[in-house]
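Researcher: I'd like a structural prediction for the single chain below. Treat it as a standalone chain; there are no partners to consider.
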Amino acid sequence: MNCAGPILRRRLLRPLTLTTRQQPMAAPFGTTPIPQGMPPGTPIPGLENIYPKAKDPSQSNVPTSKPREEYPAWVTELTTPLPSLAKLRSMNIEDATDKDMKRYLKLVRKAKIKANNEERRKK
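Model: Treating it as a single chain, here is the predicted structure.
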């Protein structure tokens, strides 16, 4: 039986707030820049081998990028970075969405697996 289950449940049920000793850390390397899209009309790289080559280079069948307005809204959301485990731990439980809670559990499980693997490797 996994003994981390009750601990995780208690951690999720109690409010996650900062104490006076814990201060939010500033990003040591600055913020991650949001990737900029390709200019409209640019051929998408990596698809040259999938689509047949046209006899005339100006009539290429390779898909090209479109203006940002032609893409659905969820495509723009892909550029926003996901919250880190540290940010999720400092978040108040009432302010967390279901998506944030799922990500928190996923990252905690991943960290636990890594710690267990590291411990086994040392033996």
